[in-house]
Amino acid sequence: MLSVNGTELWCEDRGQGTPLLLVHGFPLDHTMWAAQIDAMAPHARVIAPDLRGFGRSRLGENAGAITMERFADDLAAMLDALDVCQPIVFCGLSMGGYIALQFWRKYAARLRGLILCDTRAAADSPEAAAARRAMADRVLGEGPEPQVEAMLPRVLGETTARLHPHVVDGVRRVMMSASAAAIAAAQRGMAERPDMTAALGRIACPTLVVVGQEDASSPPAEMRGMAQAIPGSRFVEIPAAGHLSPLENPAGVNAAMLEWFLTVS
Ligand code: MLT
User: Fold this and answer.
1) pLDDT value, residue 64
2) Which of the chain's termini has less CB crowding within 10 Å, N or C?
3) How far apart are CA 9 and CA 126, in angstroms?
4) What is the pLDDT of residue 189?
5) What's the predicted TM-score (pTM) here?
6) Which residues sit opposite 2 in a β-bridge?
7) What is the mean pLDDT of the chain?
8) How many beta carbons lie within 10 A of that of residue 259, not counting itself?
9) Nearest to residue 4, comparing CAs of 65, 61, 75?
10) Continuous segment of H or E residues that includes residue 69
């Protein structure tokens, strides 16, 4: 456990070399990266945190809304606590990608590269933000179930739903174990996130954009547009995968990640 920014954060820290930070989506934890940790640890120092409030990490005080900037500040402080001085590759999925863009905005000098997985640059519409706040209130009263049941069919691809029930069960288990307070705080933080679309053209570090072909939340066409806006980025579509592509097609994501990583590390 690392004491940072008034809370206790946990991370898996394995391997040596260029640091590769793997930042999970919502409402998950570092275990969503299990296959990537195994595949990348022979080539990198892989650091896979549980974000504030999720997995083994504590929520801390005053968690009304955890903004994406605050998560990014936590990660910068965590890297300091781990004595990581060299530039990192920041890989974030979905909410982890929202955090990646805030990390880039504040700490660009600490970045060797970015991997944006199944994520978006756009902010929420007013209706989507209101729905997040309503879900936050509901989860605080009822627990994680309404959030999980609303999300699960949307985040897993059709192939996973049909052929890989153990993946569906595993994702449901992790989501159901998330604390209601953390779910509510992260939902309120995502509702506040800024629109980063206009900033994409200023990203100057090497960037890999990865999306599952069956991703209904951050669809391939939208992510292709993000990649086109980021100078020199590489775009890879992962077959037979939805929004949680690293879990749904780990071999496909590992291959894309490793091939690109070896060119930047
Ligand atoms: C995620 O997977 O992190 C979520 O889909 C993010 C979101 O709710 O926008």
Assistant:
1) 87
2) N
3) 32
4) 98
5) 0.97
6) 9
7) 97
8) 12
9) 75
10) helix 68-81
User: Given the CA of residue 151, which atom of ligand 1 is nearest to it?
Assistant: 5
Enumerate the β-bridge partners of residue 11.
49
* C-alpha to C-alpha distances, 220 to 26, 96, 150, 237, nearest whole angstrom: 19, 17, 21, 7
- Residue-wise pLDDT for 29-76, tens only, equals 999 999 999 999 999 999 999 999 999 999 998 668 999 999 999 999
Q: Which of 126, 153, 151 is nearest to 138 (CA)?
A: 151
**For a substitution probing ligand 1, which of 29, 94, 125, 247 has the most ligand atoms within 8 Å of its CB?**
94
Cα(86) to centroid of ligand 1, in Å? Answer: 29
For residue 209, with 0-12 CB atoms within 10 Å meaning exposed, 13-18 middle and 19 or more buried, which class applies?
buried
| Residue 222 and residue 213 in contact, taking contact as beta carbons nearer than 8 Å | no
Instruction: Count other C-beta atoms under 10 Å from residue 37's C-beta.
Output: 19
pLDDT 10s digits, 131-185: 999 999 999 999 999 999 999 999 999 999 999 999 999 999 999 999 999 999 9
- The DSSP H or E segment spanning 116 is strand 111-117
Residues in the chain: 265
